[in-house]
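step=predict obj=CopC domain-containing protein n=186
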Amino acid sequence: MKKLTGALALVTLLFIFSASPAFAHTHLDTSDPEDGSTVTEALDSITLNFETVIEESAVLELQKEDGTEITLDNITVNDDELSADVTEPLENGAYTLSWDIIGVDGHPMEDSLSFDVDIEETVSEETTEGQKDEDAAEDQADENEAASESDVQDTSEDSNSNTLLITILLVAIIAVVAIVLLKRKK
């Protein structure tokens, strides 16, 4: 009987220690953003990595602290990775990311993580775009003004050059006429 009990205990221990991951539930391994983290830059995508392969039927949802659901696009499963694109900039505040997956063991798993968004407020894009347009218009006006001044300078330089040329020609003509008249008188 002792041999049978010992053999049974040994088989039980071997079974427990040799259990494959297929017998374990699939849990979250890593995430971006991490649970409890504070995001300080614009979040373009969310990525969850699980301990084992998950099925394509995974569901991923993002909610603000007030319960408002945020739309996620391109939710994809690639082996043990669940990812999605964040299409709209997230406002500062607390968020909950929930998922519902089926692991390699066939058991459905639901869980969630929380993170905060705290992005330093900067000039809005509309203001930035408007400012860019104003800056471009000012640059164009400055260029036009500089070109006009240059044209005026060129024109005045051309006028000065032309005046000098005309003066030289007139002096030359007067000199020729004077020489011809002086020769005739001799």
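step=describe
Helices lie at 2-17, 125-185.
step=end
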